[in-house]
Design a protein that fits this description.
With 196 residues, this protein is α+β, with helices and mostly antiparallel strands. It folds into three domains: 60 residues, Nucleic acid-binding proteins (OB fold (Dihydrolipoamide Acetyltransferase, E2P), Beta Barrel), CATH 2.40.50; 63 residues, 5' to 3' exonuclease, C-terminal subdomain (DNA polymerase, domain 1, Orthogonal Bundle); 52 residues, Helicase, Ruva Protein, domain 3. Helix content is 41%, strand content 20%. The chain has eight helices and five strands. It has a five-stranded antiparallel sheet, covered by helices on one side. A hairpin with a 2-residue loop joins strand 2 and strand 3. The N and C termini lie far apart (42 Å).
Length: 196
């Protein structure tokens, strides 16, 4: 098993990179969403990897962060999503956005990935909802924070304005730093965050 690869980034293609590791060029499939965060060609790179041996040969999938690799491994356990499908999902959504979509039940967000229909997206939610955790502060309001009616009211207001539950949840929790904030202030700041 290959847990990681460290070497010089030699080539960046549409959905893979080539890493020079001790004089050998190794192709590693990566999510397209990760391309902008890669080191420049010629620089050192470190990727957490998943090694797969299948009927179509050996393949190596790489991720800049361990949390991306973990959600990839969880995705490939879902019936109908293989490694290429999981890579497609992580190309359409960041691992954090995918976790939010799963925990909030937002199948439409997951179905934006190429080759993933609404039924497969619903299966992802059903299969992974209990397994997925959001390490960076529990974004979703189904923990103790659900008691915080300010966040819940702000999320509800944003959803009624037409934003998806996962987008509204992410925006509110990015701005709702204290429980003393007023709902109106949270909504205004979250809207600024959503609009850009």
């Amino acid at each position: 098993m290959i847990s990681y690869i460290k070497g010089k980034l030699m080539q960046v293609a549409q959905n893979f990179v080539v890493v020079d590791h001790q004089g050998m060029g190794i192709s590693v499939f990566v999510p397209t969403s990760m391309m902008a965060r890669l080191s420049p060609v010629g620089e050192e790179i470190f990727l957490h990897t998943y090694f797969r041996v299948g009927e179509d040969g050996m393949q190596l999938y790489g991720f800049l962060e361990d949390k991306d690799l973990e959600i990839f491994k969880q995705l490939i356990t879902v019936s109908g999503i293989g490694p290429k499908g999981a890579l497609g999902v992580l190309s359409a959504l960041s691992s954090d956005d995918l976790r939010i979509a799963i925990l909030s039940g937002d199948a439409k967000a997951i179905a934006k990935a190429p080759g993933v229909g609404i039924k497969t997206a619903q299966r992802v939610i059903i299969d992974l909802k209990e397994k997925v955790k959001f390490e960076d502060g529990n974004y979703l309001a189904n923990d103790k924070e659900e008691k915080n009616s300010v966040s819940a009211d702000a999320i509800s207001a944003l959803v009624s304005l037409g934003y998806s539950l996962s987008d509204a949840t992410r925006a509110v929790h990015c701005v709702a730093k204290t429980k003393e904030m007023k709902v109106e202030d949270v909504i205004k700041m979250a809207l600024r965050n959503l609009i850009g």
